[in-house]
Backbone:
């Protein structure tokens, strides 16, 4: 892969920052040069995308849906992660389980993408039916097949965790629990928004972004562009002078970027922002839990479609799942300013990176942190390269 400052350097920088968030530069290093961004092929090469799919998306925790979307037995939500069709379903025992959306007979999908409800899961091809916990219930003509025992057959299950009310799945059977992958996040999110686990989905929408998933994720994880490109957000939600994004974790590591800011003090605040500061927890690789001031809970998640196409999902959560006037104001302003502005930015960046004229430039890694800092980008680049540059197939998420 084309040379730039190494992933190890970026990761070391991230680790240093995790231990000392306001680190000062090493004094008197005459050879110090800025870290540079990644070469174009990390964002444009289908082979890199294929490696990211296998080594990142099929090994890290992926957001499925909010628990409030499947409240009762038989409720399900189906979705895809990098082409793998999955669904989560609540059993009669009220437990949520996740399954590959693949019939154990000859492989037909069992449910369509999106939400639904079933008393049993019946395959539309030959009508094999499954219990809500994945056990095979019946298969037409099975009693005439010697040795057929339905007790031997159940849907293939994948790991599932509920984390602060959000449902995640992991295709890696050896995956560590989310509290080990993102240490400290649960506690910090609860400190910022104590009732977060009682929220319900209130509004959601999505859009297709013509860019690589990491272009979208990078854009989300730096606010260097906020004063220029998100003037409404920079005045209406945050206090730019107190804004910071840094790797977050403890001695266990962790692949989280925490965004922090005081609530805006501007007369252009979008709404009454009293009640809490701003905070966001980006969980590598493709989900972010965000709390706008006043405990307005929202999320982003990204679904990679192909090397230069990504689906971005935006969602909002309230105590009762309703959208009151205040929440409607935030949803509308956010969609029409920040969300729309970012869509343009990431589309432009992908075109630029794909140009023959593109040369990766220096990252604004500022040891003092602050809104103009791009240490978070260096951390993302390190995490990506650890996975896609590895020569063997060892776990690296
Ligand atoms: S493929 Fe599902 S019943 Fe045949
Ligand atoms: Fe942005």
Residues:
């Amino acid at each position: 892969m084309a040379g730039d400052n190494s992933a190890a350097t970026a990761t070391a920088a991230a680790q240093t920052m995790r231990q000392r968030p306001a680190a000062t530069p090493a004094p008197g290093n005459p050879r110090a040069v800025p870290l540079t961004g990644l070469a174009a092929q990390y964002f444009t090469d289908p082979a890199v995308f294929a490696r990211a799919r296998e080594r990142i998306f099929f090994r890290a925790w992926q957001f499925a849906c909010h628990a409030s979307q499947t409240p009762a037995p038989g409720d399900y939500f189906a979705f895809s992660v990098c082409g793998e069709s999955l669904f989560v379903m609540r059993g009669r025992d009220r437990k949520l389980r996740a399954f590959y959306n693949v019939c154990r007979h000859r492989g037909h999908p069992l449910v369509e993408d999106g939400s639904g409800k079933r008393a049993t899961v019946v395959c539309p091809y030959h009508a094999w039916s499954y219990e809500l916990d994945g056990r095979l219930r019946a298969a037409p003509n099975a009693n005439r097949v010697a040795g057929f025992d339905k007790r031997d057959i159940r849907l293939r299950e994948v790991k599932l965790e509920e984390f602060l009310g959000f449902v995640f799945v992991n295709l890696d059977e050896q995956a560590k629990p989310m509290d080990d992958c993102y240490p400290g996040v649960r506690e910090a999110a609860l400190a910022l928004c104590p009732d977060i686990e009682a929220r319900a989905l209130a509004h959601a929408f999505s859009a297709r972004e013509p860019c690589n998933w990491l272009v979208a994720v990078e854009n989300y994880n730096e606010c260097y562009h906020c004063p220029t490109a998100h003037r409404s957000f920079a005045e209406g939600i945050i206090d730019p002078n107190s804004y910071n994004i840094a790797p977050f974790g403890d001695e266990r590591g962790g692949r989280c970027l925490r965004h922090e800011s005081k609530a805006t003090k501007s007369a252009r605040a979008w709404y009454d922002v009293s009640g809490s500061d701003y905070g966001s927890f980006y969980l590598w690789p493709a989900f972010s839990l965000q709390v706008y001031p006043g405990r307005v809970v929202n999320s982003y998640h990204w679904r990679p479609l192909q090397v230069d196409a990504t689906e971005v999902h935006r969602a909002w959560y309230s105590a009762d799942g309703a959208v009151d006037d205040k929440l409607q104001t935030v949803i509308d302003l956010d969609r029409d300013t920040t969300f729309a502005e970012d869509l343009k930015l990431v589309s432009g960046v992908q075109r630029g990176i794909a140009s023959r004229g593109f040369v990766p430039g220096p990252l604004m890694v500022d040891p003092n942190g602050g809104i103009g800092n791009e240490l978070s980008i260096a951390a993302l680049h390190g995490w990506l390269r650890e996975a896609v540059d590895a020569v063997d197939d060892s776990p690296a998420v």
Q: What stands out?
A: The first strand starts at residue 62 and ends at 66. Residues 29 and 82 are 43 Å apart (CA to CA).
